[in-house]
Amino acid sequence: MFNASISPNDILFMLRGAGVTLLLTFWAVLGGTLLGVAFGLLRATAPGWPSYALGTLLDVFRSVPLLIQLILATAFAPIAGLDWQPFTVACLVLAVYASAYCTEIVRGSILAVPLSTRRAARSLGLTWWDDLTVIVFPIALRVGLPSWMNLALGLMKDSALVLWLGIIELLRSSQIVVTRTQEPLLVLMIAGTIYFLISFPIARLGTWFETRWQVHD
Amino acid sequence: MIEIEDVHKSFGLLEVIKGVTMNVARGEVVSVIGGSGSGKSTLLMCVNGLEPINSGRILVDGTVVHARETDLNKLRTKIGIVFQQWNAFPHLTVLENVMLAPRKVLGKSRQDAEAVAVERLTHVGLADKLKVYPSKLSGGQQQRMAIARALAMSPDYMLLDEVTSALDPQLVGEVLDTLRLLSSEGMTMIVVTHEIRFARDVSNRVAFFHQGRIHEIGPPEQVIGSPRQPETMAFLKSVL
Ligand SMILES: Nc1ncnc2c1ncn2[C@@H]1O[C@H](COP(=O)(O)OP(=O)(O)O)[C@@H](O)[C@H]1O
Ligand SMILES: [Mg+2]
Question: How many other C-beta atoms are found inside a 10 Å radius of the C-beta of residue A63?
Answer without folding.
Answer: 8
